[in-house]
C-alpha cells in the first residue's frame, strides 16, 4: 500500500503506519475541511478518527490505496461534514416534533412523565421489525422509501409495519388510559 511504503521511507515502521495512516499534513487538511464544512471544534477529533477509520477499512478490505491520499481524505472529510449537517437537521426536526407533542403548559410534569413511560413501554412491547420502522420513520425522520432501501425490504412492507406499529402503540396507550 502506498501509505505504508511512503511512511516506511520516512523512517517509520510498517506497524506505525497501520496505527496512523494519516501524516501530520493530511490530518491538518482533514481538520481544515471539517472546520470549513461547519463541523464544530469539539467534533473535529471524531471527524479525523472517522477519516482514519475509513482509510484503514479501505486497506483492510484489500482495495488499492487511493492514488492521492490527501485528495481522498479531503473528499471523505467533506462528506463527513455534510453528514454532520444532515444529522444536525434531523435532530432539530426531531426536537421540533417532540416539542409539538408536549402537553400544554398547564399539564403537570407527572402527566408528561407518565406519557413518556407509557410510550417507552409500548415501544418495548412491539415486535422488533415494527419498532425498527417506527423509530426510523418518526424519530430518525427517514422517509418510507429511505427505510425500505436501508432495510432492503419493499416500501409496502414498511408501510404495513408502520401501520401495525402505530395501531398497536395507540391501542396500548388507550388501554392504559394514558391518552
Protein architecture, described:
It is a single chain. The termini are far apart. This protein is an all-alpha fold and 179 residues long. Helix content is 75%, strand content 0%. It has helices spanning 2-9, 14-19, 24-36, 44-60, 69-101, 109-125, 128-139, 144-151, 155-175. It is built from 9 helices and no strands. Helix 4 packs across helix 5 and helix 8 (144-151) crosses helix 9 (155-175).
Question: Summarize this, please?
Answer:
By secondary structure, the chain is mainly α. 75% of the residues lie in helices and 0% in strands. The longest helix has 33 residues, at 69-101.
Kindly report the oligomeric state of this protein.
single chain
Q: What class do helices, strands and sheet pairing give?
A: mainly alpha
Calculate Rg over CA atoms: 23 Å
Please state roughly what percent of the residues sit in beta strands, choosing from under 5%, 5-15%, 15-25%, 25-35%, 35-45% or over 45%: under 5%
Give the termini distance in whole angstroms: 61 Å
pLDDT < 50 runs, ≥5 residues? 1-17
| Major sheet characteristics | none
Helical residue percent? over 70%
Shape: elongated
Characteristic key phrases:
mainly alpha, about 75% helix
Strands, helices and their partners?
Elements: H1 2-9, H2 14-19, H3 24-36, H4 44-60, H5 69-101, H6 109-125, H7 128-139, H8 144-151, H9 155-175
Helix pairs in contact: 3-4, 3-5, 4-5, 6-9, 7-9, 8-9
Amino acid at each position: 500500500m502506498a501509505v505504508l511504503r511512503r511512511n516506511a521511507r520516512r523512517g517509520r515502521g510498517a506497524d506505525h503506519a497501520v496505527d496512523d495512516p494519516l501524516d501530520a499534513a493530511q490530518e491538518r487538511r482533514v481538520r481544515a475541511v471539517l472546520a470549513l464544512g461547519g463541523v464544530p471544534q469539539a467534533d473535529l477529533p471524531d471527524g479525523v478518527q472517522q477519516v482514519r477509520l475509513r482509510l484503514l477499512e479501505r486497506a483492510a478490505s484489500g482495495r488499492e490505496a487511493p492514488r492521492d491520499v490527501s485528495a481522498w481524505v479531503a473528499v471523505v472529510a467533506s462528506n463527513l461534514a455534510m453528514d454532520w449537517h444532515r444529522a444536525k437537521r434531523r435532530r432539530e426536526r426531531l426536537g421540533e416534533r417532540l416539542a409539538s407533542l408536549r402537553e400544554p403548559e398547564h399539564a403537570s410534569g407527572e402527566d408528561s412523565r407518565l406519557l413518556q413511560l407509557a410510550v417507552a413501554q409500548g415501544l418495548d412491547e412491539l415486535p422488533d421489525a415494527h419498532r425498527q420502522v417506527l423509530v426510523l420513520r418518526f424519530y430518525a425522520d427517514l422517509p418510507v422509501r429511505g427505510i425500505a432501501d436501508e432495510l432492503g425490504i419493499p416500501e409496502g412492507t414498511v408501510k404495513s409495519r408502520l401501520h401495525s406499529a402505530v395501531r398497536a402503540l395507540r391501542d396500548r396507550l388507550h388501554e392504559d388510559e394514558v391518552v
